[in-house]
Design a protein that fits this description.
By secondary structure, the chain is α/β, with parallel strands linked by helices. It has a 5-stranded mixed beta sheet. A hairpin with a 3-residue loop joins β3 and β4. The longest helix has 60 residues. The radius of gyration is 31 Å and the shape is elongated. The N and C termini lie far apart (85 Å).
Length: 280
């Protein structure tokens, strides 16, 4: 605080002036003066940086002023702690963002190789590409475990609800949900007439190959056994720290669409695994 004053008059009344040049929005002179004046049987107020008021009972004014100073000190201490927490969070976000950015070229290259292969192998067929009349659908949906994420979680949950509604209108009779993340897990638990698969929420904060591969293998096996006719994934695709694109895509069946030869120019250079021959 830049300045504060409490003048006690001869008739035990008090005038209070509070002024501040701080940019901390948690310290509001108007609220401070209003609070003190109410305790002094008076009234007052003002804006964030300047306020004044008075009361006709100054018997405990020194106690009130000490409480205000303690409150301001507490706010400043909290501000320092939250500032340190922001720095730690920024460092963690940067580390996670770098990890994602480092794996993206590998993912893009893999997708390009697959597209080239499908473009050159027009007769290629797979059990995972079988298109069936969709009656049973599995939906894997990702959210965070914590709040304070703005619309991050609410958008995912809304997209899940819209997907279920849309798919039902197209004849889907049953759904099995794979919620990964506490927030979407809580939302899914309130849905009726829908099967849910129990997944440890730790996977949302600490994803691992083993944890994801167990879910993936289960989805693939159930698709082959015709337990599911379609598998959908709903998640946020990270573009940068400020923009994450909500994505709804089909995981199974794989779309084996004929594509034009891509920039990699790798057409005609593939050997299928079943065609390999072990040389001596």
């Amino acid at each position: 605080m830049d300045a504060e004053a409490a003048r006690i008059n001869t008739k035990n009344s008090v005038n209070i002036i509070c002024k501040s040049n701080t940019s901390n929005k948690d310290i509001h002179c108007g609220n401070i003066v209003k609070d003190i004046c109410s305790k002094c049987n008076g009234n007052g107020g003002g804006n964030q940086n300047f306020a004044q008021g008075g009361g006709n009972d100054a018997s405990e004014i020194n106690t009130y002023l000490k409480e205000v100073k303690a409150r301001i000190g507490s706010v400043n201490s909290t501000k320092k702690i939250t500032g340190a927490m922001k720095m730690v969070s920024s460092a963690k976000l940067k580390k996670a963002q770098m990890a994602i950015e480092n794996i993206l070229p590998y993912q893009n290259r893999l997708n390009s190789i697959l597209e080239n292969f499908l473009a050159t192998e027009s007769d290629f067929q797979s059990d995972f590409s079988a298109v069936r009349d969709v009656k049973k659908e599995a939906v894997v949906v990702f959210s965070s475990n914590s709040s304070l994420c703005g619309a991050f979680n609410s958008n995912v949950i809304r997209e899940l609800e819209n997907t279920i509604k849309s798919e039902k209108s197209h004849g889907v009779q049953s759904f099995t949900l794979y919620p990964i993340g506490k927030k979407v897990k809580d939302a899914v638990s309130k849905m009726s007439d829908i099967d849910k698969v129990e997944i440890d929420t730790v996977l949302a904060d600490h994803p691992s190959f083993d944890g994801i591969s167990m879910i993936t293998n289960e989805l693939m096996t159930n698709f082959l056994n015709k337990e599911f006719d379609k598998v959908t994934i709903i998640y946020h695709h990270l573009k940068n720290s400020a923009v994450q694109k909500l994505t709804n895509e089909t995981f199974l069946p794989i779309k084996l669409e004929s594509k034009k030869e891509s920039k990699l120019n790798l057409s005609g250079d593939y050997i299928r695994s079943e065609e390999r021959r072990v040389g001596k």
